[in-house]
Amino acid sequence: MSGDDAKKRPMTQKQFADRLGLSTATVSLALRDSPMIAEETRRLVREAMEQSGYVYNVAAASLRTGQTRIVGVSFHDIVHPFFAEMLVAIEDTLAENGKAVFINNHGDDPERLHRFVDSLREHGADGLIVSPALGTDPKVLEKLRRAGASIVFVSRYLPGFEADFAGNADVVGMEMATRHLLSLGHQEIVMLGGLVGTTTGDNRCEGFRRALLAAGLEWRDELWLPGPAKRLSGMELAREALARKVRPTAFACFNDLVAFGALNGIRAEGLTPGEDIAVVGIDDTEEARAAYPPLTTVSNQPGRIGAAAAGLLLDRIADPSAPYQHIAIEPTLTVRESCGAKLRDKSA
After folding, report:
1. Long-range CB pairs of 161-165, under 8 A, 24+ apart, other chains included
2. How far apart are CA 84 and CA 78, in angstroms?
3. Is 236 left (phi over 0), alpha (psi -120 to 50) or beta?
4. How does pLDDT run across 6-58, given as a tens digit for each residue?
5. What are 177-219's pLDDT values in tens digits?
6. Could you give the C-alpha distances from 102 to 68, 90, 92, 117, 130, in angstroms and in order?
7. Which residues are bridge partners to 252 per DSSP?
8. Could you tell me if 129 and 101 are in contact, meaning their C-beta atoms sit under 8 angstroms apart?
């Protein structure tokens, strides 16, 4: 082999370790951010890697460790501000722990989610954080688990499929929003949005129903108008509800996007939101403060949920036999003008 060819050959991990005066085991653990190696040593190894041009061979490492450091994240609406903020927290936490994130937006199409899961299996992914699509086949996720991947549900989950979960306290959140409307004297309240058959939709409807029954009101199935968690859906559902013979005086909306649409639907009917019709959302997105009128909403703290989901996945990868954990972030209500109440928070 010529001298030029030798120069072109990439540095091996042993050569890199010898240059640093460390064992190959120490270098390997440091490059994987193992807590077994002191933080200062890990920093020095990383800096030396950058300066020397040494490239850590993840594929080769996966053969030794049985881990690819690949993690899949799959949501049904990745452009939604709630999920976007959650994704940032997930990616930050996983990146700090040396994981590469593959992202999927399944759009509530189970086939798209199934294809993504198959791809994760082919790549030997270490895990998946997923808000499952309506109609997801649990067998698809079970195949991924049998292939060695850890699974954490976020926001939604599949009833009967045992796995870690991080998300909202959906029943509590919608119950809180509805009780607030009841406290303002509203009795003809309609819930707008959310899909039947999803845990978020069904659980929020259950919170809505519980609040009405606790107030001594009659439950009627027509009080929930289900639909996609989108602005357009919120506008259409609001106009449909306002066309009823007995017009509702308040809307408890599945999320903020539905609520923003409802505000427009109310105006389209010649009414004033916050005066003629009260509106409450769920999520407390940044836009909730900028809406007109500012939106009363329940905060679900997506950043905390994302960090919790990533933490659960890392724990599961480290100890696959540990008991499953279910983390539900307790919601808080922020009162602004859209519900017609006089009280306003300082950020409104």
Report:
1. 162/324, 163/324, 164/312, 164/313, 164/315, 164/316, 164/324, 164/325, 164/326, 165/312, 165/324, 165/325, 165/326, 165/327, 165/328
2. 6
3. alpha
4. 445 566 677 777 777 887 777 767 776 666 778 888 888 778 777 776 665 55
5. 999 999 999 999 999 999 999 999 999 999 999 999 999 999 9
6. 12, 12, 13, 11, 12
7. 191, 280
8. no
